[in-house]
Amino acid sequence: MKVKIHTLFEYLLETTEAQPEAFIGFSLSQSPVLGDFLDDLDPNLSLDWNGRSFRGLPELRAHVLREAGLDGICKPDDVLITAGAAEANYLAICQLLEAGDEIIIEKPGWPQAEVLARAKGANIKVVERREADAWALPLDDLRAAVSSKTKLIFLTNPNNPTGRLLSVQDLKDIAEIARAVGAWLIVDEVYAGLEWNDARAPSIAGLYERGITTGSVSKALGLQGLRTGWMICPDPDLIMDAIILRENSSEIMNILGETLAEIAMRAKRYSAAIEVARADGRKTLEMLDAFIARQPLLSWTPPEAGLIGLARLGGYLNGEEFAKKLLAPPYRTFLLPGSAYEQPNHIRIGAGGGASAQLELGLRRMQTLLETLG
Ligand SMILES: Cc1ncc(COP(=O)(O)O)c(C=O)c1O
User: Fold this and answer.
1) Cβ-contact 62, 265 below 8 angstroms
2) What spacing in Å lies between the alpha carbon of 86 and ligand 1's midpoint?
3) Is the overall model pTM greater than 0.85, yes or no?
4) Ligand 1 neighbours by CB, cut-off 6 Å
């Protein structure tokens, strides 16, 4: 299987060297530092693997079920700890899809499923989220797209890049649509935990026997560098297939990632961290929203959850040219162009990263650039 590069990763590779001074694109909460964990770390922790389960530390799997609202609904063995949500998606997609199988993806959406499906030689069908509908997933289009050949549906909730949420009823309807054709259904919840107006949506693993929930500690907790996430699925064969594929790549989880994630997800610590992340996120998103309202060349539907959203550039400006101009001196400010999501007249903006993102500085510089273009 030869995997080809996607525009989003190409842009990141191209721009990492640019050393921006400000970021208007961070999708994660401010990251904690190692020192925050030292009091809870055992200096005698063996750096061998956990030696207890190929599925990951049992305590961590219990935390994952608790936060996904799946206590008593899914079993600890329905959870597999992985190297981020990215590995969870990878393992599930690679084991489920074969050449000629049909997969349904959403656009705009997280490109991983499309990249892997292409490499596998699968047939890709797209359901378009429309800006005029505030980026809602059109369930009638999804219903019309599935067929007896549909092997897999891949969705994000909250959606990357728009922050749009699926409601409880949406999720139940989507499960019905998938069930009608026996399709597997991955709902990537990597941005869950930062819902601005609603409660966290239920996880699909609790609603559908072929539902696969993926998530991680990367976004709401800001712990992206731990490379620790999970897959939850009530189907034991799917979990075992993922373990078998992982045995032939990275074999096991890294012990420091698992251990630190387990500490970070202990109930008291988790709720304190989420409270801080929500307060910070709400404040920065309000600031971003007010900034956009003042710009004649920008408009957006603010995210219902998570720290990122897609903003439209007026005046026929091209998102990629705009992002490159903004990254170059004198602006030195990073954001992702909408071209990473096939939305050429948009930019992806984000309120994450905490103080180190220098968001206000970045916005001032963006305003200056917008004024020169307006
Ligand atoms: C929707 C989505 N899924 C998965 C990932 C990968 O996250 P992780 O760090 O948990 O692998 C990202 C990262 O941006 C994402 O946006």
Assistant:
1) no
2) 5
3) yes
4) 27, 84-86, 110, 156, 160, 188, 190, 216, 218, 224, 229
